[in-house]
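hey so u asked for the seq, here:
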Amino acid sequence: MRPEPAVIRVVLAEDGVLLREGLARLLDRFGFETVAVAEDAETLKRAVADHGPDLVITDIRMPPGFSDEGLQAAVQLRHTDPALPVVVLSQYVQHRYAAELLDSGNGRGLGYLLKDRVADVAEFASALRRVAGGATVVDPHVITQLMRRRRDPLAALTSREREVLALIAEGQSNSAIASSLVVSEAAVGKHVGNIFAKLRLPQADDTNRRVLAVLAYLRAEDRQR
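ran it, structure tokens below
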């Protein structure tokens, strides 16, 4: 655990002005210092670079797209500084980057809390302090949702990798897949290698791994029917 500073300096990212101002006042009430506020992901990243905070608190949906810009920014910030404590505060579980964020920095100094499930402000403030000190605090509902998603072995594959795997399941060779998708055979080989790695298939001959990949594909297809 990293030593907790006497006053925790916070960069707060939230596009909703009422919630942003309310959170800033709440942080002040519990002894935090909000050194900067941000309305979008780019402003958040600049504020972190300028102020070197002890803690980042960010929403997920932020301008301009209101999809996952805040979470993407959090992942980028952790890649730059794996020790930077980050708390994601959102209304929902975003699967695409959540696992990547929680895997960063050995999982330390991270929080993922759901706004609607914060029932006690003192406990919320305590959770923020623990994250700032290097702990990991994740809402149990978030963990449940991520575990459900991770049961799908194909969840980590890109849409192109899924296309390649579907063609492998049809028994097509790499050259035939390349022709079908109008890409180079080298590109197909790279996709196949990524599929093997993401499905965590054991090191073996490629023929056997192609069979194992097809089995994973068929099991996933059966669950969706």
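The first helix runs from residue 17 to 29. The CA atoms of residues 150 and 156 lie 8 Å apart.
lmk if thats what u needed
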